[in-house]
Specification:
With about 325 residues, the chain is mainly alpha-helical. The protein folds into 2 domains: about 140 residues, no CATH class; about 90 residues, no CATH class. The chain is about 60% helix and about 0% strand. It has 12 helices and 2 strands; from the N terminus they run H-H-E-E-H-H-H-H-H-H-H-H-H-H. The longest helix has about 35 residues. It is elongated, with a radius of gyration of 35 Å.
């Protein structure tokens, strides 16, 4: 006789995650769909995205609207300013259906047209400076992390030196000299020369952060390859030891093996002996290869190590 509640029908039991009533596995959401779902539920982020898209559309369409005459940021409207008051706009700042934000004092140029066209110029300068900084940072970061040694030391000192310069102060203090130099090199004067100068300063002083990030990733990947190669050699040698009759419990763990291997960062006694001119040294790698060959085992990684070490034994 059953004690307690009546048995629950199997149809009323909760479903196992990942299965539907039909017995088919429920397809998981991809990372892109998860990100889209989170974005749609995040109202502040969604509003910010809409604002950014509007600015991008404004920046792209401004030169086109200026070319067809809808925007006219360079036209002077002297009839909308009062010369007797020092060039101030007329009543309401010159605001009208033709000039929604009024006109510029002393010149009478349309303020809204100049703002919209200024978005294009600002975005072009910002994107160009960011691209320049990213390209320099990626190149130097990859070179520094991959080569290491003295190259890494030099690049790291250059990064520290670049970060020590006050970017904003240099942007302001050296503008006159460098803009004149750019004009003498053939860059059109005015906004073009000023924009090129800002791009160069922001790009040449903004790359260190990207270089440090890329350098860290390259170092991480390089160390990961060493660890994977070390694990492969360790597993092969452990298998050889077990084949010879050793107990797996008596083998040194990979963690202890890796910790001991860190002490080999400096020149080993064998390397110092070879450098001193010793004709022959004991070669553990060749010993392991010989024993493994007798058991019908071979490792390409160990063969590469033996070949790298040289023929002397």
């Amino acid at each position: 006789m059953a004690i307690g509640h009546d048995p629950v029908p199997i149809d009323a039991l909760p479903l196992v995650p990942g299965a539907d009533p039909g017995g088919k596995a429920i397809e998981g959401l991809s990372l892109s769909r998860l990100a889209l779902r989170r974005l749609l539920h995040d109202k502040p982020t969604l509003f910010s995205l809409v604002v950014v898209v509007l600015f991008l559309l404004m920046a792209v369409s401004a030169p086109i609207l200026s070319a067809v005459g809808i925007l006219n940021p360079t036209a002077y409207h002297n009839d909308l300013i009062d010369v007797n008051s020092g060039g101030l706009p007329n009543a309401k700042g010159g605001i009208s259906w033709s000039h929604w934000l009024g006109v510029e004092p002393t010149t009478g140029r349309d303020v809204l047209s100049r703002i919209i066209l200024g978005v294009t110029f600002s975005l072009a300068v910002a994107l160009s400076a960011a691209i320049l900084a990213v390209v320099i940072g990626i190149l130097l970061g990859i070179i520094s992390g991959y080569l290491g040694g003295w190259v890494d030391a030099i690049v790291s000192r250059i990064i520290d030196m670049t970060l020590s310069f006050p970017q904003t102060l240099m942007l302001i203090g050296l503008s006159g000299i460098f803009i004149e130099q750019l004009v003498s090199m053939g860059v059109p004067e005015g906004n073009t020369a000023s924009g090129v100068y800002v791009i160069l300063v922001l790009g040449l002083f903004g790359w260190p952060s990207f270089a440090r990030l890329i350098r860290g990733q390259v170092l991480s990947q390089r160390e990961r390859e060493y660890i994977e190669a070390a694990r492969a050699v360790y597993a092969w040698v452990a298998k050889l030891c077990v084949t010879l009759g050793a107990d797996e419990k008596d083998l040194v763990s990979f963690e202890k093996y890796a910790a001991a291997a860190q002490g080999l960062a400096g020149p080993s006694s064998a390397a110092r002996a070879l450098y001193a001119g010793v004709p022959n040294i004991e070669r553990v790698d060749r010993l392991v290869r010989t024993i493994a060959a007798q058991k019908g085992m071979r490792s390409a990684a160990v063969d590469e190590i033996a070949q790298l070490a040289g023929p002397r034994a």
